[in-house]
Amino acid sequence: MTTATTRKTRSRWWLLIALVAIAAVAVLATQLTSPRAGGFLDPESTATNGSHALATLLREHGVEVIEANTVDEAVSATTGNSTLLVAPTYYLPDRDKLQRLSRAPGDLLLIAPNFVVQDVLAPDLRAGASTVTQKSPGCDLRAARRAGAVDFDTGRIYRAATDSVDLTSCYGGALVRYRNGAGQTVTVAANTDFLTNDGLRDGGNAALAMNLAGEHPRLVWYAPQQLEGEKSSSASITDLMPDRVGWVIWQLIIAVALLALWQGRRLGPLIAEPLPVVVRASETVEGRGRLYQSHRARDRAADALRSATISRLTPRLGLSAAAGRTQIVDAIAAHSGTDPARLTHLLYGPAPATDDDLINLAHALDDIERQVAHP
């Protein structure tokens, strides 16, 4: 073996060692800095839609934050001097179990409640739609006045069901408070953004979240991330990997590819040859549907359903493609008689959590199209 060959071999080994070292450092950095997985408004999740930042701030200010995953845990953790926060996840229980929450001691803080939650836990309120967004508090509620300007921008507001309800209305009705017949203080907020890790830094969001959630020494946080009685499935190795491992793997693939191009044999140009294959449109749709299902991409499937519904309805309603959310919802409500708040949830709400939720969403969107076509 000549001296030149020996040096070339050594340089290749050093290059491989350097690549392995870079990969090890990248994986370690990813492991240490990757966000902790979690669901929507999960107090332990550091994802953008989680609430770990708020839970940490509350604990630093002396508030005992208890995460409840079931109705029994929530009821047993509440006291007469506590706040029960109910977050709008897809795993909230049925009406019967929610009735048990209504009998729990302490005050209630309902975040963007759905129709069932509002009917059970805040029956003295009625939800409505509004095209006007008020960022200033406009009320004498201490928590809102200390927070200042907050952008709720949901198009949903709350009003008292009867004149006998002494309702404090802030931000144009997007945040309300009243005392129910059991003596509990019930606070309802129409938006979730001010509680999330991503939205906490905007405007007065952090102050409002701290003031509402930290009014009592104990906060019971009820944001179930799975159905009650359902056992958590065993995590696969891909579930245990940090999100950025894929990015590191792609870097390694690119590095190896560059090394192969540098050291490998040069091949001739590729020859493109058309194949006599005709793919029917139905097969394309079915294939994409199976792809969504295999990857559990319910969010992308829901976005496709909602976008298609809106694109078909806007010409029928005489709206342009640039029409805003409020215009579309109001026009559909006028033609179909559907509640604007329900339309907003169906057309612009969160992604379905299960396949059944996705199917129900598809049926609901189909019903809306039929109602508009045949009012």
UniProtKB/TrEMBL annotation:
Top-level taxon in the UniProt lineage: Bacteria
**What single Pfam family name could you report for this chain, choosing any that match?**
DUF4350
Question: InterPro entries this protein is in?
Answer: DUF4350 (IPR025646)
Show where the DUF4350 domain sits.
43-212
- This chain's protein is named DUF4350 domain-containing protein
Task: Identify the species of origin.
Answer: Mycolicibacterium insubricum
Q: What is the lineage of its organism?
A: Bacteria, Bacillati, Actinomycetota, Actinomycetes, Mycobacteriales
